[in-house]
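Now for one protein, fold included:
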Amino acid sequence: ALKETQSIRDWAARENLPVKVFAVNTLEQGSDVKEKSTRVKAFWRSQGFTMPTLFDSDSKVFKTFESPGLPSLVLISPTGTILRYHEGLFPEMQETPKRELREKAD
């Protein structure tokens, strides 16, 4: 779902929407934070991702949300209110969030 997330980020930038898109890396494997971070950076570069990633190195954020399924897509307002939450892969993984973002921007 990272490629779809990158696509949504690129679309929002082209549309000049006041939207920020972040990926959250969680459950990363490695013996320590440095190894995990190195793996994340290498993967990001290999995929050509330009969206920022938030690194949940010890999976605390993931656990705070009661270990949601992966992937998860969360739309959060500027005030921190969760507007929409999608868990797992779904057929319209790009069009649904785009529609929801357009609705919130109007």
In short: The mean pLDDT is 84. The beta strands are 23-26, 53-56, 72-76, 82-87. The first strand starts at residue 23 and ends at 26. Residues 33-47 form the longest helix (15 residues).
